[in-house]
Design goal:
The structure holds 2 protein chains of 2 kinds. Chain A is mostly helical. Chain A contains 11 helices and no strands. In chain B, the strands form 6 sheets. In chain B, strands 6-7-8-3-9-10 form a 6-stranded mixed beta sheet, with helices on both faces. Chain B has a 5-stranded mixed beta sheet with strand order 12-11-13-20-14, sandwiched between helices. Chain B has a 5-stranded mixed beta sheet with strand order 17-16-18-15-19, with helices on both faces. The chains are: A mainly alpha, B alpha/beta. At the A-B interface, α8 and α9 of A face β6 and α2 of B.
Chain lengths: ~280, ~675
């Protein structure tokens, strides 16, 4: 009896909660879909009406070769002829390396610069100068300076993404509220404890902001780097060679991959931020 | 006992951009005993927090030294723990972690288990057990402040420093926390210094209240002892007799600071016109029946008539305000009790002689001594009856109110008491209270009687709170009441303005003296700009005998004299007598150069010129002759003051000293 009654109520509850969920979030789901479909439809017509030489979105399916790539992302025929998943995976590995290096160097240097005003004075102009150099401009320099294409690509990612981390960390350390510093001074807290219990937690929101900006930049940089550094497996070089061979619909497919991965990376960082930061210092 | 904390000649200067500097604090001297609770109060930006930070060691003095337990404070440390205004809890830690961090750092030598116990004990102490594992973001403001207090007390500081600890809290939470803090401080014998801007909070919590003047160059404007016994309860302290006087003292101080600031900012230039050096005058007065000449001169246009186009009357609630205004230079002239010019000139105010001259006596009489109704029921009708009563009740402390040490009320009251064999300092207690507050204090029972100008005696009698035990007729008929006083340097800088001012007021006195004008004057005085009371209480002629006691009628009623022969001319004899009385009660020394002082205080020449120019020839030269008091004493102009003082039975140890009045250079007058 009791169990029955329970199930029934939970049954009605389920449909009810579905309804209330739809009421609350319906617009958030429907409107973006309408927006995207509208965009695709306009593009389709523009393409069919010969307004642009760009193939229509449907070419992802109608084009034989692209359809194959779309259906088999995990294929591997050796060499550079790999499915799009593997291409992306290779790029992501490079990004992971460069980005990790950037995070370590950026946070470490940021704390140093943030706590030592003299170091800040000495290095700030240099940082501001280097930060303005576009990823593509680094490519020729790194190709000359570094032994191989792999390292060069990683370095370009590093150098592009290190700045926001470095600068945000510096600001975060500089912006530690005087109150917290006063508490530390009054309690005469040891330097190690100050570092872990006050400096890091206090600067964390800034550090995360830097990391989140940096992941986007790193992903932008890998494409640029790979397009130029020929002969590597990666989504950037894939686009480049597809363009060289005039496989335009393949380029479109790769672009969808790039956008999707970028979105996922940002969501992932936001999720981390949400998990790690305390409630009231979340930015 | 030596000082636990001592702040010694501390200055604090902050550098500003462009090579300038801002002197925040100048010459701060303060010593704090162990277990004392001190409040620092003052307006925003007066440097209270800076002083606190220097005691904490968070900031170092530019000059001078702060000592804690005999050691110079050079850097912050857990022995002088601070409770910050915005709590300063670390938001990424729970309540328990916040306190643990402090305890672990400070008490490294004791075992972990014991430290945890201390943490737990302090969480319980502030009643936060249910919230111990929450982060500060989930707590209310009051709860956060309790955590901050618990964290501060847990490390057993020698000195607890609180920077506006309850500033951001609502009234109810604040009240609760104040009581908790008080209890904790008492139980643990904590020495504490608290910065606050809340007057009631300061009075409730403190043993002493340090009042800081406004910056730049703030210093200690005064220190009040709070004599309310502990343990104190928030609802009960308000009933303590000292509570309101302390409170009003602080509020007076703060208001005065605000005014000084405003005046400094105003910078009015001197306006000269009609051959007068200055026609824009600020004239201070205290609302009393005796302010009639000042009020009439303003309302009936006598100031304008004599060329003083821009006279502003500045209402002060107490004579102290008049003193501050004149000394501070923001009043040009003021209505004063007759003893005030000589009191100021002989160093009554902060032992600094400030030459003040008087060239017009505006009123005579109009004062009386009122005692509580309960004494009437005890059949007390004279000073002798009162003495008998005092002897019968040696355990009771009787407090009588007067308005200012230099006022005729104080002098007459003391004289009357002493003539009746009562020592005014030992047998009773005299207390300075603003005139308008007398009746309320008598009603509340915080004083047993008072001597004050009208209308307050009449009012107390009509409301049957008190009864008039003696009037001017019983003490000294025709004694000087209120005079016009200006600083000597002012009189020297603006001689023609001075004469015009005396003329305007003398004419107003003449107007007041005409019985046909009485009704109009009563209406004006009763208005909100002046005494602000019912016209029923204001009498310029004989009132009814409101005691309704046919067996013991009042010996008479000496109503105000505003004008006449010997009324308005400053009297040298009276000035000398006042000098002897001030010396008799130890307010000022008797000047060895009393002749010189009298000549400088009594500007008879200005009065004579003014009276002649107005055509009052008969009063311009008339002199009053000897003073006759009710006890049969006659005081003549050639009475030797030292012999006279020696002949008095009841007196303090008076001193005779040369009073040096420097001829100060004429300062800029506001």
């Amino acid at each position: 009896m009791v169990a029955n009654a329970g199930t029934r109520t939970s049954g009605t509850n389920f449909s009810e909660s579905l309804r209330s969920f739809w009421k609350k979030n319906g617009e958030n789901i429907v409107l973006p879909i309408i927006g995207i479909l509208g965009f695709l439809v306009i593009w389709q017509f523009a393409s069919m009406a010969q307004l642009t030489k760009l193939p229509p979105p449907t070419s992802l399916w109608t084009d034989k070769q692209t359809q194959e790539l779309l259906l088999y992302p995990f294929m591997d025929r050796g060499g550079l002829d790999k499915g799009l998943f593997w291409q992306t995976w290779e790029s992501l590995k490079r990004v992971a390396l460069g980005y990790t290096a950037a995070a370590i160097v950026g946070i470490g240097l940021g704390i140093l610069v943030g706590t030592q005003p003299k170091v800040n004075k000495a290095l700030d102009p240099l940082f501001q100068f280097l930060r303005m150099i576009a990823p593509l401009a680094w490519v020729p320099i790194t190709l000359i300076a570094l032994p191989n294409v792999q390292t060069a690509a990683i370095f370009v990612i590093f150098i592009t993404s290190v700045w926001p981390i470095l600068i945000n960390t510096t600001v975060g350390v500089q912006q530690i509220p005087q109150d917290y510093k006063n508490v530390a001074r009054v309690l005469q807290i040891s330097p190690t404890k100050y570092f872990f219990k006050i400096l890091i937690p206090s600067a964390l929101p800034y550090i995360f902001t830097g990391l989140r900006i940096a992941i986007g930049l790193a992903w932008l940089a890998i494409i640029a780097a790979e397009i130029v550094m020929s002969g590597v497996v990666g989504i950037g070089f894939f686009i480049w060679s597809a363009y060289q061979n005039n496989y335009v619909s393949e380029v479109l497919l790769a672009v969808v991959y790039i956008g999707a991965v970028g979105l996922l990376l940002d969501r992932f960082m936001a999720f981390l931020q949400h998990k790690i930061l305390p409630t009231d210092s979340r930015s | 006992m030596t000082a636990f904390v001592s702040v010694d000649q501390v200055d604090k200067v902050f550098p500003l951009g462009g090579g300038n500097e801002y002197v925040a604090l100048k010459g701060i001297d303060l010593s704090i005993k162990k277990g004392e609770f001190i409040s620092l109060i003052g307006h925003s930006g007066c440097g209270k927090s800076t002083l606190l930070n220097m005691i904490a060691g968070l900031d170092l003095p530019t000059d001078g030294v702060v000592l804690l337990d005999g050691e110079s404070v050079k850097r912050p440390g857990p022995d002088k723990m601070v409770v910050f205004q915005n709590y300063s809890l670390l938001p990424w830690m729970t309540v328990r972690e916040n306190i643990t961090l402090a305890v672990d750092e400070v008490m490294r030598d004791i075992p972990k288990a014991e430290r945890d116990q201390i943490v737990q004990q302090h969480i319980d102490m502030v009643g936060l057990q249910p919230h111990a594992d929450k982060q500060p973001a989930m707590l209310s403001g009051g709860q956060k402040q309790r955590v901050a207090i618990a964290r501060a007390l847990a490390i057993r500081p020698k000195l607890l420093l609180l920077d506006e600890p309850f500033g951001a809290l609502d009234a109810l939470t604040r009240g609760n926390l104040q009581e908790q803090l008080m209890r904790i401080c008492e139980e643990n014998h904590v020495t504490a210094v608290m910065v606050t801007h809340d007057v009631d909070e300061a009075v409730l919590l403190s043993d002493r209240i340090v009042m800081l003047t406004n910056g730049p160059g703030s210093n200690i404007g005064g220190i009040l002892e709070v004599d309310i016994p502990r343990p104190r309860k928030r609802m009960e302290v308000v009933k303590h007799p000292s509570y309101y006087s302390l409170r009003s003292e602080i509020i007076y101080f703060l208001n005065q600071q605000k005014r000084v600031k405003k005046i400094k900012a105003r910078k009015v230039s001197v306006i000269a016109r009609h051959g007068l050096e200055k026609v824009n005058l600020d004239i201070g007065y205290v609302p009393l029946t005796a302010c009639a000449p000042v009020a009439i001169a303003k309302e009936k246009g006598f100031f304008q008539k004599h060329g003083l186009d821009e006279v502003t009357l500045v209402r002060e609630t107490s004579w102290r305000g008049i003193v501050d205004g004149l000394v501070g230079g923001y009043l040009d002239a003021a209505q004063m009790p007759s003893g005030m010019p000589v009191w100021l000139s002989t160093g009554g105010h902060q032992e600094k002689p400030i030459p003040v001259v008087s060239s017009l006596t505006m009123t005579r009489n109009g004062n009386a001594i009122t005692l509580d109704r309960k004494f009437y029921e005890q059949n007390i009708r004279t000073a002798a009856d009162f003495k008998r009563y005092l002897r019968e009740t040696p355990n009771q402390r009787h407090t009588l109110g007067m308005v200012h040490p230099s006022s005729m009320h104080n002098i007459l009251l003391r004289y009357w008491l002493a003539a009746g064999g009562i020592d005014p300092d030992h047998d009773v207690q005299l207390k300075t209270i603003p005139p308008a507050q007398m009746v309320a204090d008598l009603k509340a029972g915080t004083i047993d009687g008072f001597c004050v100008g009208e209308p307050w005696n009449v009012r107390a009698a009509m409301e049957e709170i008190g009864f008039t035990v003696a009037t001017d007729l019983d003490i000294w008929v025709g004694h000087p009441g209120k005079v016009l006083g200006v600083r000597e340097d002012w009189a020297n800088a603006y001689p023609n303005t001075h004469i015009a001012l005396v003329k305007a007021l003398l004419e107003a006195c003449h107007f007041c003296n005409d019985p046909n004008n009485a009704a109009e004057i009563r209406q004006i005085l009763a208005g909100p700009n002046y005494v602000s009371t019912s016209p029923d209480y204001i009498h310029l002629t004989d009132p009814i005998d409101f005691r309704r006691d046919p067996e013991h009628p009042l010996s008479g009623y000496a109503h105000h004299q505003f004008f006449g022969q010997g009324v308005n001319r400053p009297s040298r004899t009276e000035t000398l007598w006042t000098m002897t009385q001030l010396a008799r009660w130890g307010d000022t020394p008797l000047p060895r150069n009393w002749m010189e002082i009298i000549e400088r205080v009594c500007r008879v020449s200005v009065f004579s010129i003014a009276a002649r120019e107005l055509g009052f020839l008969d009063i311009s030269t008339f002199s009053r002759g000897p003073i006759q008091l009710f006890d049969g004493t006659v005081f003549k102009s050639d009475t030797d003051p030292i012999d006279y003082l020696n002949s008095q039975a009841i007196k303090r140890d008076f001193s005779v000293a040369e009073v040096v009045l420097d001829a100060r250079p004429t300062p800029r007058v506001a």
